[in-house]
Design goal:
Elements (H helix, E strand, L loop, with lengths): L1 E2 L1 E4 L1 H5 L9 H12 L5 E6 L12 H7 L7 E6 L2 H9 L4 E7 L2 H8 L3 H14 L6 E7 L3 E2 L3 E2 L2 H14 L3 E6 L7 H11 L8 E6 L7 H10 L4 E4 L19 H10 L2 E2 L4 H12 L15 H5 L12
Parallel strand pairs: 1-12, 2-11, 3-4, 4-5, 5-6, 6-9, 9-10
Antiparallel strand pairs: 7-8
Helix pairs in contact: 8-9, 10-11
């Protein structure tokens, strides 16, 4: 059976767009519930200025207190060298560093040019010496920028090449930050990247949003092009605070349903995920998305071992 890995990002990319502060206890309970669904990787938070994103100011406390399954890969996003230092001090061994492809979004996000951001990353990463954590370099606005429109594929490729030169051991996340990508665009970009750049040390992931209802279709196209790590957020929460109009991430439960329906294993307990997605969505019902959660539960679980998932409980 074919396989795909779903990286759950609701605790970071989902929660960051929620304005009222979610109590730390609530976050921990939701994270523990998500972790029990069978995800192999979880993006748990970010070490970013609390002035920029107050919602994530308790990431360090969550890391200390959350009771998570042994072997679960915990990842934390950092936007700069200071965030990297804080993450390493907290014992984090998997880092997500984010840089935008478009100048306008990068300035809105971190108040730097793309070249300045990459220079800072290269210096910080080289400064770690040999004892480096695992790295994901997330390239935002690979398809569309809220201010500049469609992003040239050549711009993405240039940053992919610069990333690999600076960090030969890296996962590169190609991100549709605004959700404006379409399957043909996803196919075109990955069709250029996948035959050339993956290696023993370099892998690719896809991160999508569902602004225009194309989140699942775009993820399936990325998979068709050879990508085997796909990001999702339970309950469809999310949206970049610095990308006007962007809706939530593609719902993890929609991705799991689609892949499993196609005979592609995710390793996720679908029944548990639906319950977790319901719980996650309650922190911001007006921002929640996805389709599978609103289907009658008995029907949604049909073919997914409904008898073992407590349907009707």
């Amino acid at each position: 059976m074919s396989q795909v890995e779903i990286l759950e990002v609701a605790p970071r990319d989902g929660f960051q767009a929620v304005k009222p502060f979610i109590p730390t206890e609530t976050k921990i309970a939701l994270i523990e519930q998500l972790a029990a669904c069978g995800f192999k990787r979880l993006e748990i938070g970010s070490f970013v200025s609390p002035k920029a994103i107050p919602q994530l100011a308790d990431t360090g406390e969550i890391l200390r207190r959350a009771r998570l399954p042994k072997g679960l890969r915990i990842q934390v996003l950092v936007p700069n060298a200071k965030g990297l230092e804080m993450a390493l001090a907290a014992g984090v061994r998997e880092i997500i560093w984010v840089i935008s492809v478009s100048e306008s979004h990068n300035r809105a996000n971190v108040n730097r040019s793309v070249d300045e951001s990459f220079g800072a990353f290269e210096a910080a990463w080289a400064g770690l010496g040999r004892d480096k954590p695992k790295l994901r370099l997330a390239l935002s606005t690979c398809f569309d920028c809220p201010w500049e429109g469609r992003v040239p594929e050549a711009s993405v490729i240039r940053l992919v090449e610069r990333t690999i030169a600076a960090a030969p051991e890296v996962e590169i996340a190609i991100c549709d930050t605004t959700g404006r990508a379409s399957p043909d665009h996803v196919g075109s970009l990955f069709g250029r990247l996948m035959p050339r750049y993956p290696s023993a040390g370099v892998t690719f992931a896809y991160h999508g949003h569902d602004t225009y209802g194309l989140g699942v279709a775009n993820a399936l196209e990325a998979y068709r092009q050879g990508v085997r790590t796909i990001d999702g957020a339970a309950g469809g929460l999310g949206g970049c605070p610095f990308a006007p109009g962007a809706a939530g991430n593609t719902a993890s439960e929609d991705l799991v349903f689609a892949f499993e329906h196609m005979g592609i294993a995710t390793g996720i307990d679908f029944g548990k995920l639906l319950k977790a997605a319901d719980a996650v969505s309650r922190v911001a019902p007006e921002q929640a998305g996805g389709k599978v959660r609103i289907v009658p539960r008995q029907r949604a679980l049909a073919g997914f071992g409904a008898a073992t998932h407590g349907v009707g409980a």
